[in-house]
Amino acid sequence: MLIKELLSFEKLNATQKNIFNKIINNERLSIEEGVELFNFELGSLGLLANYRNKQKNSDKVYFNKNIHIEPTNICIYSCKFCSYQRKINQEGSWEYSIDDILKKVTEYKNTDLTEIHIVGGVHPKRDLHYYGEMIRGIKNIIPNIHIKAFTAVELDFMIRKAGFSLSEGLLKLKEYGLDSIPGGGAEIFEPSIRKQVCDEKSTSEQWLEIHEAAHKAGLPSNATMLYGHIENRKHRIEHLDKLRQLQDKTNGFNTFIPLKFKQANNSLSYIGEVNTLEVLKVFAISRLYLDNFDHIKSYWPMLGKDVTQIALSFGVDDIDGTIDDTTKIYSMAGAQDQKPSMTTVELVQLINDSGKKAIQRDTLYNTIKEY
Ligand code: V47
Ligand code: SF4
Q1: Which of 287, 299, 353, 366 is deepest in the core (most CB within 10 A)?
Q2: Ligand nearest to the backbone CA of 63
């Protein structure tokens, strides 16, 4: 078989040959095999991940037209990797009112925007009803917009603050107009590492429980993993394994987004950042390990346009959206692009130049336009 020759099959050790055969035969990889994948040559991983991605998505690469709204960076927690959170009245803090947000949304009335992504800090004074009214207000202005909002960590707090159980709270938010949930707050599930980087907020079990309850309530979601800090490669695969198990149960995840730790202005700055080789390996291995996920996303405002374009040959089939310049979470952590935004023409060119086919999608991956 040609792919065997292309990745020098004969040079692989016995374990790696077995892994290769499992991938070609569409068999599920174990945690140990996932960890071993990090020892493959980068080019071989790219070939295998691209092969698997083509089976799932052919040459399609998806993007959507969206904006990000970050209502506040005031947060009761102090995650060690976070460059963004501030306390009430601290310099650099912001809290937009619902009116401020509705004014911003009105600018997008009568445009072809399809999604509004809302994520922020865990504000001590804002509960489910506050955010519910925000969602309702947005939908009054743009009734057909898809609202993907609030990480599991924000949901956990706002639902408890309003005195609801998890499932009641999610259903209430759905009534207000919530359509799906983004993937943030997952960080790294391994308990001892999670304790060291974000010991105050929702636990791994709670994150998984909230996504499971959301799927049950008819709210699809995304999943993330924050990597490249103090975790090791086994912790990453164990994290993917938990997501794969939940996806087997609910099939409620749309996409997986590995988030590379960015070092500027936070308490883990001393660690530095992993290089592009490691970033590409994580994408490829995620594509191979998460056999029940349809999509792997590279979030370009964090990684930059160049790395995102290369990632399209390492298992990635989604590059998020136009974003406008509405997100600060990565610019404050040192992302190159301090005002991230790409026009549709630029997004399409980035994809087409990589030899793939650009597809404008809605949040649920229905095709809106092929380029
Ligand atoms: O949970 C915080 C991460 C996440 C840093 O679902 C950092 O489509 C790197 O959820 N370096 C929030 N990462 C962002 C998020 C998201 C982003 C894009 C798309 C989607 C989606 C979701 O940002 C947090 C945390 O894991 N984060 N600080 C940092 N210094
Ligand atoms: Fe708060 Fe989220 Fe930052 Fe943690 S990552 S401190 S929960 S804003």
Answers
A1: 287
A2: 1
Report the nearest atom of ligand 2 relative to the CA of 82.
3
Tokens of 247: 């996806």
**Paired strand residues for 147:** 116
What backbone phi and psi angles, to 5 degrees, belong to 140? Answer: -65, -30
* Structure tokens given for 63: 């993007």
Lining ligand 1 with CB less than 6 A are 81-83, 119, 151, 182-185, 187, 222, 224, 226, 257, 259, 261-262, 266, 299, 320, 329, 333
- What the chain holds in terms of domains, given with CATH numbers, is 2-53 (no CATH), 59-370 (3.20.20.70)
Pocket test for ligand 2, best of 84, 123, 266 (most atoms within 8 A of CB): 84
Q: In the chain, what are the helix, strand and coil shares in percent, each to the nearest 5?
A: 45, 15, 40
pTM of the shown model:
0.96
